[in-house]
Write a structure and sequence with these properties.
- It contains four helices and no strands.
- With 98 residues, it is an all-alpha fold.
- The chain has one domain.
- The radius of gyration is 15 Å and the shape is flat.
C-alpha cells in the first residue's frame, strides 16, 4: 500500500508541473527505463525492443496529457505539439536503426 500511496503522491506532483516540464520528466523516465528494462532473449534485436518501448511510452504519455488543460498564456495545443514531437522522435529513432 505504501508504494501505491507514494505513486499517487508523485502523480499529483507531476500534474502540478507545467506541461513542458512534464514532457521533459517523461523523457528522463523513458531514458532510464530503456537503459534498465530487461528484455526476453531471442525475441527481437536490441534496436527493435528499444524502439517499441519508446513508442509505447510515447503513446502512454500522450494518453495522459491529452486531457490536461493548458493554463499558459496564448494559444498552445499541447496534444498537437506532443504528437509532432513524438513523430519527430520516431523518425530519429527509425533513422538510427537503419
Amino acid at each position: 500500500m505504501a508504494n501505491t500511496a507514494a505513486l499517487q503522491q508523485v502523480e499529483q506532483l507531476i500534474a502540478r508541473l507545467p506541461l513542458s516540464q512534464q514532457v521533459m520528466l517523461a523523457e528522463r523516465v523513458r531514458e532510464r527505463a530503456s537503459a534498465t528494462m530487461p528484455f526476453a532473449r531471442g525475441q527481437e534485436n536490441t534496436a527493435d525492443r528499444a524502439r517499441h518501448e519508446q513508442l509505447r511510452l510515447a503513446e502512454e504519455l500522450l494518453a495522459e496529457v491529452e486531457g490536461i488543460e493548458d493554463d499558459s498564456r496564448g494559444e498552445f495545443k499541447a496534444a498537437e505539439a506532443i504528437r509532432r514531437t513524438r513523430d519527430e522522435r520516431i523518425l530519429q529513432v527509425c533513422q538510427k536503426g537503419v
